[in-house]
Structure formats: structure tokens, C-alpha cells
Amino acid sequence: MTIHTHKARSLFDLPILKRALIDSLKKLKPRNQVRNPVMFVVFVGSILTTGLFIQALLGQGEAPTGFIGAVSLWLWFTVLFANFAEAMAEGRGKAQADSLRKARRDIHAKKLAEPRPGAKVEPVSASTLRKGDMVLVEAGDFIPMDGEAVEGVASVDESAITGESAPVIRESGGDRSAVTGGTRVLSDWLIVRITSNPGETFLDRMISMVEGAKRQKTPNEIALNILLAAMTIIFLLATVTLLPFSIYSVNAAGQGTPVTVTVLVALLVCLIPTTIGGLLSAIGIAGMDRMIQANVIAMSGRAVEAAGDVDVLLLDKTGTITLGNRQATAFLPADGVRVEDLADAAQLASLSDETPEGRSIVVLAKEQYNLRGRDIHLLGANFVPFTAQTRMSGVNFDGRQIRKGAADAIEKYVSDRGGIFPATVRAAVDNIAKEGATPLVVADGQKTLGVIHLKDIVKGGIKERFAELRRMGIKTVMITGDNPLTAAAIAAEAGVDDFLAQATPETKLKLIREQQTGGRLVAMTGDGTNDAPALAQADVAMAMNTGTQAAKEAGNMVDLDSNPTKLIEVVEIGKQLLMTRGALTTFSIANDVAKYFAIIPAAFATTYPVLNKLNIMGLATPQSAILSAVIFNALIIVALIPLALRGVRYRPVGAAQVLRDNLLIYGLGGLIAPFLGIKLIDMILVALKLS
Amino acid sequence: MTLNGWLQLILYFVVLIALAKPLGAFMARVYEGQSTRLDRISGPLERLIYRLSGVNPQAEMNWKTYALALLLFNLFGLIAVYLLQRLQGALPLNPQGLGAVSPDSSFNTAVSFTSNTNWQGYAGETTMSYLTQMLGMTVQNFVSAATGMAIVVALIRGLRAAPPLATGGIEGVGNFWVDLTRTTLYILLPLALILAVVLVSQGVVQNFNSYQTVLLLQATVDGNGNAVTQQVLPMGPAASQIAIKQLGTNGGGFFNVNSAHPFENATPLSNFLEMLSILLIPAALCYTFGKMVKDTRQGWALLTAMTVVFAVMTLIAVGAEQNGNPAFTPMGVDQTASELQSGGNMEGKEVRNGIVNSVLWASATTVASNGSVNSMHDSYTPIGGFVLLFNIQMGEVIFGGVGSGLYGMLIFAIIAVFIAGLMVGRTPEYLGKKIEAFEMKMASIGILVMPLTVLVGTAIGVLTTGGLATIYNTTPAPHGFSEVLYAFTSAGNNNGSAFAGLGANTLFYNTALGVAMLIGRYWIAIPALAIAGSLAGKKIVPAGPGTLPTHTPLFIVMLIGVVLLVGVLTFIPALALGPFVEQLMMMGQQAGQ
Lengths: 691, 593
Known about the structure:
Largest sheet of chain B: 2 strands, antiparallel
Strand order of the largest sheet of chain B: 1-2
Strand content of chain B: under 5%
Helix content of chain A: 40-55%
Structural class of chain B: mainly alpha
Largest interface: A-B, 77 and 68 residues
Radius of gyration of chain A: 34 Å
Oligomer: heterodimer
Shape of chain A: elongated
Number of domains of chain B: 1
Number of helices of chain A: 25
Number of strands of chain B: 4
Distance between the termini of chain B: 25 Å
Structural class of chain A: alpha+beta
Number of helices of chain B: 18
Shape of chain B: globular
Number of strands of chain A: 20
């Protein structure tokens, strides 16, 4: 039961298909139909023509019974096809919601009277837990509800949520304290303070998001709906007034019969933008679905849509632009110090340093100078861990006090002990910083031994992604705690447009506000509690699933893979969403030209036979012409469901080129396609002797 | 078409485009409140008007206040014109002793002139006293034009406004009284003065004389066989009214036959200048727009879109008219163009104007919501008539009325930007302002209102006895339909030209068309101002590679496409039953002979 299996699901999965077929009938409820103004008109038209059909059956028909029946039938199909498109889009989400629901089983929780190990345990049902309650979760237990670990450390299987099978570590304090209801503790124990009430948990929100149950129309969708409604009204006017026009023409010309209501309804349905109207909500749902496939949970459709508009992308250097760890690449001894001695001291100082940087120093010493790793306990050495105050770490043994740390920290350490910090070391430090790398100075007591060159490794392929973003019109800003020199060098290497060095939560927030005041939309990622204010301020804020509860609540989307680079994919999904709407709107309107050519000559054939010259498609009879247009109009919805679900392909090229390409495909294509389609359907009708 | 014809067309376009920039730049200075060469003359007058009327020219208005001021001002104008007509019999400057105009005709005319439509259900020389013409018609010719220009300037200010923080929290779009006053004093009055003087030099009348009775050069007989040796020549202060009638896209003639009358339009030069004046300000306003939003390319883009559509439509009509009418051939009428005659379908056209200058005028007067004529549109071939009808049905945004054409076009630009923006995957923005639900709502009303008035009006016209009673041309059947459609198209788009053949001075048409003119004017003006107000409150998004450029040929094509498509899709069924079927019938007759 993971989301990854979901990815493999094809566009037309059989169970989803079956369910969608049933749902498209269920969606015929008027309450459902009225939400979509365009399709509601079709719905009313279907009812109207059905009424006319019944009237014809009773012998009072305004046109041949079979013709009215056929038009009526295909109008119902039009409604059903639109329902089917929506049901298909929802189907994938629903299937996933079902599997998520399984994770929300009723769990027995061990409620604690007070938050300490060994406190009295009271077994309760998870559904009775409220915000602020304390529970104990031990190996093998499910975490009953979202919360924050207040004590303990445990490995947790979060695959139910993330689809990632490798367990993650959750511990009290720091940035890994958030736990999610429905996940399972594999080893050790945690004391968890519950942070949400039943029905409001992350899992609950996820289910409702993927199911699309509470889907609200996004701002852009609302604006488009207004335009579509306006066009529907215009076409309503154009067709309704045709009846008086036709009556006048019949009287004035003294021949023929006025146009029938059936034909007018058929014309109206063909003209109003049913293609986009019928697929609009499917496009929106499918957009959310693509997010889910990318393993990102958006808290609102609005956020997905905003992602397409992002102008500025703020990216943390570490983990996003560079690999999380820096690597030692060289030892640079001070004057009069042998490089082997420096390497030896550096290795000793790093033996107990479990950070990736520390390990890379040990590895480098071994590779370059054949210095084998030693057991620090056998040496009787005493490890001095890194603290935020001293900003160095090291070992004490044999009366030696080896330290490694930031240049200014070591300088202070050395001079406190009466030593001097050599100018050559200072120069080496500056050089390294200029290259965008991190200098780590090593000292033994009052003696400065030299510098370790720690290099930031820029992720492979990231430069190309940034170039792509630039072509999309998105500016990238690297956020780092490094000094400006280092930051500038890495920024240049990674190809970002700008950087913010020595960043603090305050400067981050300030940067976002500045950009927003300039009218730009800002996206960022974050995982720590101190990121929360900036996440809340950003327009698109993607929190890492490994992050703290505060970060997740401040953001408007959560990446279950905790991969900050994914923001780029999110931007593309947002753009695709808008593009698909725009393309289908254009297609829908362009279609109308051909439909006029089919229906107008047919509708007035009895009054003005000369109008038949406009029947450039050479459609067989007036009835087959009208029916062909109606059938084409219905079938095109089905034909475009895959496009609506998959989205128009996005390529990172300039706006002008995208517009030209899409205008050619969907504008010109939309103009030509129905001529061919309607003619083909007409030929089939003739072949089947239905004309 | 003759070489001479081509040269006249080209000359017109060259002069029109050449004047757009200097006049446009001048108007931008006027609206920015910068100094101009007219300050010494117009400045004291302007300040005097503010002092007398108690207007604080520095006060910014939000869009609602602006709209309210505008509506009140136009309502006042409407009432004044109505009363002038009703009371003219008791008022001075009435040498012919013309009596009160009927209430329904007075209402229709009052609406018509305040809404910049200038639809005329009456005949000027037999209905209106000089006082009514001068205080009523001419004054409204100025201020209704100024009203339209004020609205577009407000919209431009909204489009370029910095966020309200910079302006002290008011999402201001300007001050209606200032825009109205400056437009009139700095732009319309000086231009009209120059044109009027030149027209007088060409022989256009300008006096307060009573009508003159003169001997006919060639005596003739009337329908009963009685000899006719005399004719009455109407007089009056015509030139001053005609100048602004052309410049302000008003179009209401001083005389019944409008600029086909030699006293309104005397010579080829006067014809050229009057024709030029139809499109002069609408074209120049595009440049003003570009100048004011600090990107003249934006203005040129709109002007290009307008010019391309206008040129194509004009050529279609010229072609159709030059082609002649097959019905004339059996009558032995020579319709070929030669050195001595322009050939083609000359029914309803002045011989002195010929085909090109008649059709060019007709096309210009219909793309712009001017409505003045120098030939009779009813007599055009079906395709020629279709061009004129469709020119109006595009919503009067191809040049359009002074101001109203540009704000209409900007509404279309907003819709084009919206669809194009979606297609490039970005929330649409125009000139850096985001186009969102509110703008779409207002823009939708802007494009919806016109089809509503035209189609519903026509439907009522062809269904009710009131409407049917005065359709004089019932054969061929589609022609009568075209006449009603044209009347409501003209009124609903504030054009004012008529297809004739329809008796419009009836209670039904006076009322129905009056209502159509009111809706067509203000239900678009108010949404345009609402958009201005909403945009004024928005930040400007800086342009980047992801931004859709709105000055490129691609966007121009897109904009033209949207305008054409909206017009075509809305009116094709109606046009099919009018000019299209008439054309097909005419071709059928031709084939049958």
C-alpha cells in the first residue's frame, strides 16, 4: 500500500473506469449539474428535447420523431461524457483515498497521565484523543494521531504516508520531532503530545485533498468560468433570437417553416463551449492528481495554480543546490608545518566526528597520506564535541589539545593561549572562501597547523534545471548561511541568478516581502521551525515531510519525498494546469465556425434554399448535418479526456513561442478538425442509412 | 479599381497614421497635466471654469465617484437637450418658426446626442431650430466626445497606476471634471475651430439666415405633372457643428442627408478632411495610450490591429461596390470604371464622390462609431452592406468612438490576454496588471451587453406590429430584415448611421432605439471604469521572459482573432438571414440570366 504503486497506474485503469461509468450517472443530479453553468445549459437542453421527443411520440412532433430522439439522446450523451471526464479524474484520487483510509484504522492508544516514561498508562481509543493529550508509542505500535515527540527517539515506518519504505528517525526536540498519525514505530519508543483533533489530522486532510471532496474552484478557474458563462449567454442570445428572425423570414419570403426548437437547442449546445465546460473540473482535479503522483500534497488547488505563476524561487543551498555534505579535498599546512602532521592532527580531531565533513577528513587523510583510522578509545583520547558556543571540535590526549573549526573561532582559541595566527593561514582561508569552499583551520594548543579545504559539491544537473527555469522566466535565489564570498562562488558554479548570504529567518522573510512588494510571486521550501514565518509569507511554500509540524502547517504543500528540487516540478504542474484550460478554451471556441457551417444552412433550408451554398462540407441532409454536429460535439469531449487528465505538454521556452505553438495546434487545429469530424460522422450516418 | 482609386485610399491611410503620433503625443501631455502651447489661451479659461463651478482640480476620484460624476453630467445633458427640443418654439434663433418636437422623438434625440450615437430619427432642416442645433446638438457633440475620452483616460490611468500606497491609499483614476474640461478646451475646441474655418472656406454654410428660396437652374415637374421652378435652400450655423460632428465621432448631420449635402460637404478637399476627422482622434488616442503607459509599442500594436481590420473590410466593400449590381446590367447601365466615371454600383452614391470616396467614408464611419454618411448605405450591394453592418457589430472597437473605441478595444485586449495567458501557463497580466475574476466579470459584461441590445432589439423589431409597420422594403425579404438589424446594431453600438428604408421616427423605434443607445453606451462605460478602479489597486508585475508580450505581431493577430471571432460567432446567424442570403439570391439571379 504505497503511493509508488499508484504511479504505475495507467490513464484508463479498469477498476477506475468501471467506477467512473457508474459515477457519471450519479452525477446527473441537478444539484451537481448546476455548479457548471455551461453543462447546466446542456442538461436543460437535454430535458427540453426529451420533452419534445415525448410530444412527438404522442403524434404532436415539431419534427420527425427519430430526429428529435437522436438529438435528445446525443445531448444526454454530452452531459454524461462530461460527467465521465470528471469521474475519471476523481477516480484516481478516490482509489488512493481508499488506501490511505486503511491507515486511519481505529488505533488503541496508550494515553499517559503525564509526559514522562513510566507514567501511568491508560488504554483508550485513538478517536477519543484531543489536542494536548500525551501518549506513549512503543515498538510495533501505530502512532494514533498527529503529534510532536516530546521524549525519546525511535525509528518510524512512514510508508503509509510517503510510500518510502526505509524507516525514518523521529526524536524529541529539533527538527525531526513531528510524527504523523497512522505511521508505525519500528523500534524504541516515543512520548508524543497530540497536536490535532480527530478529523483534522494530516491524514484526514490528505484524504480529503486526494479525493477532491472539498475541492474549491481556484481563482483562475473562477475567472475562466465567468468568461465561459458570458459566452454561453451570448450564444443563448444568438440562438434564441433566431426563432423570431426565422418567423419573420418565413413570413417575408412566403415560404418554408420556422426553425424548430430541437434544431435551436442542438445549435445552442454545439455553440456553447461544452468542450472546455465539460472538461474544466476534470482538468483541475487532474492537476491535483499529478501533484499526488509527484508525491506532493497540496493543501489547496489555489497553491497549485499559484505555482504556475511563480517569479522567484528561493532555494536553500544545502540539500537543494549542493549535496548535504561538504567534502575535504586538500590539506594546506601553515609555514613550517609538514603536511603529514597537519593531516595526522586533522584526522585525530575528526575520528569521533560523525558528521559527513568529519568522515571525509578521515578518508582524505587515509587516501592521500596513508594514515589509517585509529580507535580513539585505544589512544585514550578525549573527544571534544562541537558546540554552538565554541564552534570547534577536537580531541584531548597526551596533553595535546587538537582543535578544528571556523577560522575566527580557531584564531581566538590560539591567541587566548598566547599563540599567533599566521598571515599565510589567513590568506589561505580567504582564498578557499573565495572559491566557494569552506576553510576549516586546525590548531594544536597555541600552534596553528594549517587549513583543511572543504568543498561544497554542487548537485549534478542542477545548473541545467536553473537554466530551464530562467527560460521559463523564473528567477532563482540561493539562500545560505555562508559568508558572501563563499556564497557568490557557489552561486556562480550552480548558475543561480542571485543569492542571499548569511541568511537568518529575518533576512529570509525580508527578502520575500521585498520581492512581493515588487509584484513578484515567491516560492520556497523549508523544513525547520525557523523557516515557518518565511513559509507562511511565501506564495507557494513547500514543506518537507521530514520537517517540523510548524513548517508543515506554515506551508501550503508538503513534499512526501522531502526533495526540495521538486519545487521545479510543482511549477511545471501549475503551468500545465493553466495551459490545458487555455488550450481547450481556444479549441472549443474555434470549433464553432465549422458547426455554424453545418447547422445554419440546414436550419433555414426550407425558407432560403439558396443558403445551401454555405453547406461547404456537402452534408447529406439538413437532419444529418445537425445530428453530425451534435455527435461531433459530444464525442470530442471523450476524445479529449486523456489530454485533460495528462495536461498539455509544457516546454521551458519563452511565452511568445508557447503561445504561437498552442495557437497553431489548438486554434487552427480547432478550426479545421470539426470540418473533418462532422463530415466523417455524416458519411457514417449515410452509410448506416440514418441520414 | 482604378489607379486613382488606389492612390486616394493610400493617401488617406498615410495621412491618418502620420497624424496619429503628433496629435497623440499632444493629447498625452494634456492628460498628464503637462504644459502645452495652448496654455496661454486655454489655461485661464480652464481655471475660470474650475473657479466658477467650485471644482478642485487636484482631487483624485475613485472609479465609483468618477462614474457617478459622469452619469450625472450626462443625465443633465440629456434633460437639457430634451427640454430645448420641446420648448424651441418659444425660444430665440428660430427663423423658420419650427415647433416643439414630439416627446418620443425628443427623448430619442436627447439620448442619441448625449450617448455620442447621433442616431437621427428626424430631419435636421425641418425639425430643429438653430438654437437647438447649437446649444443642444453641438454642445453634446463636444461633451459626449469628451466623456468618452475621459473614460479611456481613466482606464489608462488604472492600467499604469502604482499600488495605492504611493497615492495615499486612493485607488484614483483621475478627476472627471478635469478630464472633461481639458479634453474640451485643449483638444476638441481647437481642432474643431480649425476644421470649421477650413470647411467654411470650402463653401460649407455658417450663418443665421432664414432659408433661401431660389430658382432652379433646370426646371422640372413633380409627380402630378406640375412644373417646379423653385427650391428652398436650408441655411444655418452648419460648419461649426459639422467640424465637431466629424472629430468627435458624433455623426449627427445638420441636414437630413448628412454629408451628402453640398452645404455640409462641398468639395473634394472638404470630403477628405471630413473623412480624415472621423478616424483622427481614435487613431491618435492609441498613441496617447502608449505614451501614457510609457511603452508606445503597446499603442502602436492596438493601432495596427485596428488599421489592418479597417483596411481589409474597406477593400472588401470597395470590391463589392466596384463590381456593381447585376440587376443594373439588363437596364443597360454601364458599370465599368473609366476616366469619366467610377463605375460600379452608384445607386445611392454621389457622382462627385464616386465609389472609393463613398465606400471609404462608409467604412470609416462604421468602424468608428461616427455614423455620418456621404452615401446611402441601404443602396449598397449585400456584401457592401454586410461590411458596414459587421464593422459596427465588431463592437465599435476598430477605431470606434473617440475614447469609447479604445476602451472597448482594451476590454477585448484584456480578454485576449486572458486566453493567451492561460495558453502560456501563467495568470494573465496586461501591462503588468493581473487579470483576475473581477476584471473578467466586467470585461464579460462589456462584451455581453452589445449582443444583448442588438439581438433582442432586432427580435422585438421583427416580431411586433410597431416594428413591422415601418419596414418599407419587403422585397427581397432579407433586405427588410437587414434594415431592422442595422438600426439596432447602430443604436446598440452608438454608431448612429442608418440603413434607411426603415421609418424610424415612430413611437416604437424612437423608444426602443433610445433604450438600446442608453444600454449600449453606459453598460460598457461603467464596466470599463470598474476595471480601471480595480486595476488601479494592483501591483505591477515586472515583465520577464515568462511574461506574454502584448506588442508583438503574434499578439496583434490574437487580438484581431478575438474581436473577429466574438463578432462572427454572435452575429453569423443573423447575418445569414440578412445580407448573406440576399447576396446568394442576387448571385442566383445573375446565374439565372
